[in-house]
């Protein structure tokens, strides 16, 4: 249990890892300069030549790239190889503007699969496991990504995809699923459906682990999932531009291991573009070191996190990022105060009388922004007296104010009234935008 998939790489001394990263970065800048008119132009505008990149720290001389660059070069203008090298596309459905297209060579798919094989092994999964993949299959990267990773480690894959929840629960029992991969919000929903069917995930299934990601979630939600179902809930991170789901925490659940031979990460101050100190919060920037159809140079993903270069007790030498707080563009600004939905979630999930489903509704009343938090009660609180409920909503409002420094109107609603999601949950409704 808890072995390494690729021990030589995963435990490589840090100096050797940095040397490898430097070498790969040098080849990458020459490669993109030779293969892409987009990058040639970007380098020219920034006044940088491939030969200026001599050591790893020279990465800061390179220009940033942004999601808007992908949109402006839609569909494949940032690719570095012609279509006949591309074995697969995935498409990320942007909520605004054009979707973004990502493409893979066979080698790129292998790199992605290797990354997940290391990650799944690090949470103790292997040949004996039955892994139910309940992320969406198709254009979204979640389903196929996890599918290939799980097969690579020799596990048995149950490719249910998202949806048809009752059937998923039956299959989970009949085929002895030991690990499930889906969004945390879908798993919460699945647990509710199981209860309605009279099935206890803890007692009536063999489930021991969940690989949960694709959306922000909090440590408090992790605790709730683990306590109510008896499984271990692991965080998995990735984005379609980087390939798809790629990295997880190890069994110690203390930060997500980023494979440094494959990706070079920086955390920057989004305002100045300068790297922040280790341990400080900032925006994640990624450079791909072994990805060829669609490589990225200093891509501003927009996710907010903290980089941790301390060695992990598991023996892996690669850096970790702490739980993603949210995206720079998820942050809601209410009366000048920055609020991340994940902060609201952390407060709510600490209150035992509150259920797992919530929505944040922001609106404008006259010149003022107003924020309301609509949250479900648990079945047992729902049956309580009105007076108790009023005092509960006051408590929630007080705790939110303590953390966010903002007054929110709290609306307690009946269990089951907030829409459930099978993919990424939509927690924020911003009516100011319409
Ligand atoms: O969501 C890839 C993925 C699939 C990751 C399955 C994990 C599991 P996109 O659709 O491109 O790709 O969305 C990427 O989702 O920039 C984050 O804002 C958010 N995200 C992904 N994982 C996490 C996580 C996939 N563990 C965007 N915690 C990213 C918080 C996450 N946010």
What key phrases describe this protein's structure?
globular, 434 residues, alpha/beta, six-stranded mixed β-sheet, 13 helices, six-stranded antiparallel β-sheet, 32% helix
Write up this protein:
- By secondary structure, the protein is α/β, with parallel strands linked by helices.
- The chain folds into 2 domains: 328 residues, ANL, N-terminal domain (Rossmann fold, 3-Layer(aba) Sandwich), CATH 3.40.50; 102 residues, ANL, C-terminal domain (GMP Synthetase, Chain A, domain 3).
- Helices cover 32% and strands 24% of the residues.
- It has 13 helices and 20 strands.
- It has a 6-stranded mixed β-sheet. Strands 9, 10, 11, 12, 13 and 14 form a 6-stranded antiparallel β-sheet that branches. Strands 19-18-17-20 form a 4-stranded mixed β-sheet.
- Helix 10 links the parallel strand 6 and strand 7.
- Helix 11 packs across helix 13.
- The longest helix is centred in the first third of the chain and has 22 residues.
- It starts with 6 loop residues before the first helix and ends with a strand.
- 5'-O-[hydroxy(phenylacetyl)phosphoryl]adenosine (DLL) binds next to helix 6, strand 7, strand 8 and strand 12.
